[in-house]
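User: Can you write out an input/output pair for a complex, sequences first and structure second?

Assistant: Here is one pair. Inputs:
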Amino acid sequence: MKVIVVGAGIGGASAGIALQRLGHEVVIYDQMRENKPVGAALSLWSNGVKVLNWLGLAAEVAAIGGLMDDMAYLDGHSGETLCRFSLAPVTTQTGQRPYVVARADLQALLMERFGMGRIRLGARLTGIADDGTTVTATFADGSTDTADLLIGADGARSLARDHVTGATEGGPRIERTHAGYTNFNGLIPIDEAIGPANQWTTYVAEGKRCSVMPVAGGRFYYFVDIPEPPGVPYDRAEGTRPLERAFGHWAPGVRTLLDAIDPDASLNRVEIWDIDPFHTWVRGRVAILGDAAHNTSPDIGQGACSALEDTFALAITLATTTLGVEDSLVRYQKIRSARAADLVLRARKRCRETHAFDPVATQAWYDHLRTEDGSEIIRGIVGNITDSPINLGGGTL
Ligand SMILES: Cc1cc2nc3c(=O)[nH]c(=O)nc-3n(C[C@H](O)[C@H](O)[C@H](O)COP(=O)(O)OP(=O)(O)OC[C@H]3O[C@@H](n4cnc5c(N)ncnc54)[C@H](O)[C@@H]3O)c2cc1C
């Protein structure tokens, strides 16, 4: 079967590898002109890593993964440790260690494994036509391609989503919802004045957080959240000024982090949005996958992991059912949409708690952190993973 995948992000590239491994002829199209991921790094929790292992990338992912052995919360003002504990139970309960990876490393790994020769960059999808037997994609330069199946992995502002939901024909368009904060992130050299080299360290206060996670190559992935409405003007020339305003008075470890940021080398600013869960992911020979289907705020670090779960479910469904592509896609939607919705809503709940959108809940959380021995936080992390399709109904130990 011939498959067109639109989008070469983590969702599209992983789906491309999976479908190629099933023996299908796959071409990936992406509007980007070069591999330049937005954002510096991401945490791949055990569910996401397991899908990558299943794709034959276990050793490669381990090689680019930072080792996050412990986790700690610190008071943002005083730097006092509120709690600190080992993340080893996440590994033992799920059967796989989580990793933090630089996005550029993961993206390059996926694209190379798929095959750069079958990725068409600079190709912007402008239309989809499904005649019931084949599906044709049209691109901005007027070119077309026709296949048996089209996977829309075209991200949060997906055109493929508009096709499957009928918005391209005048139906209501699914809109994104602002999560209430802006995220700044990047990579810096590891400095233990911020936190130990093998620890996910998070400073919290005032409904804000300031975090570092270890990435391979002696680097920390840093990310900080500033609660603010959408559309706050920001010029790149301002560099870290918004961070100075938000965190300049925080603990010495945070000061060290701010001083380590080189805005020209690694400082990204992202307004955070998500989408209310919706359950129409397929139409005829077209299915959506990844952020196109379930755009989530990064508050539980599960967006890309969820895209990888889509890849797994889609490939297994296509490989094991024989009533035709359209039937397989409906089964894929059925397996995935409720599970993905659960993660979007879990992230929203966490977002409210972390950012003081409910100040009483946030204060209660800060108070709780002082008594936390890790068991509740680990229960939450593992709870995000237990129902993953990659666990094949076996959950965790
Ligand atoms: C600040 C932040 C931190 C995050 N941290 C984590 C984390 O720790 N762990 C985690 O699992 N997830 C995390 N996520 C979520 C994760 O980044 C996304 O869920 C994931 O990257 C989605 O991958 P995707 O392939 O679906 O979409 P994308 O990566 O957005 O890829 C879509 C691709 O489609 C292309 N495209 C779009 N429209 C067209 C078109 N019309 N024609 C052709 N090509 C098109 C784009 O160029 C792009 O390359 C985070 C997100 C943010 C914003």
